[in-house]
Specification:
The chain is of the alpha+beta class and 189 residues long. It contains six helices and six strands; from the N terminus they run αββββαααββαα. Pfam families: RWD (PF05773).
């Protein structure tokens, strides 16, 4: 059987197996991605497998360079690829994309055990020499002081606004005719 026939059969099988699986993505007829773990999970990662012309007689290309993996160190990405390559060697000559994705899913904890998320700590040094460390993922929560209004000020504000708390259109417009008559200037002068 020719390599292209094998690829077509595997493509049909992958489509039927992963139909409706939001973790699987077909980027093209020979390029596939699978997300292992849930979005937002620290140990989640994405594998991309692409088939060369002579696949499955030759090994598929395995990549972890997707932006999704930006929190994973290059060394750990290489470790995962190396373990997947062991699976490739054991399955060379057969359709193996499903096998590789399932191996990654079944061994996620083992593959990601060395994962240390990058630290997003920012150190701030004040002008007085004080040092403060903050996490870049968590915004600095400073309570804003709200302006305190008296009851009379609140009533006056409520009288000016509509039921949504918005000022009516033109509330700050100047009546030109009244303005001109107050200043005493007319066009006849």
């Amino acid at each position: 059987m020719a390599a292209n026939e094998d690829q077509e059969m595997e493509l049909e099988a992958l489509r039927s197996i992963y139909e409706g699986d939001e973790c699987f993505k077909e980027l093209g007829p020979t390029v596939f991605q699978y997300r292992v773990g849930d979005i937002g999970e620290l140990k989640a990662f994405l594998i991309e497998i692409s088939w060369p012309e002579t696949y499955p007689e030759t090994a598929p290309n395995i990549s972890m360079n997707a932006f999704f993996n930006n929190q994973i160190s290059q060394a750990l990405k290489q470790d995962i690829i190396d373990k997947l390559q062991e699976q490739v060697e054991a399955n060379l000559g057969t359709s193996m994309t499903y096998t590789l994705f399932e191996y990654a899913k079944d061994n996620k904890e083992e593959l990601m055990e060395k994962h240390q998320p990058f630290s997003n700590t920012i150190t701030l040094i004040g002008s007085d020499g004080t040092v403060e460390a903050t996490n870049a993922n968590q915004p600095n929560k400073k309570k804003e002081k709200k302006e305190q209004l008296t009851k009379a000020q609140k009533r006056k504000l409520a009288d000016k606004t509509d039921h949504k708390g918005e000022l009516p259109r033109g509330w700050n417009w100047v009546d030109v005719i009244k303005h001109l008559s107050k200043t005493g200037s007319t066009e006849d002068d």
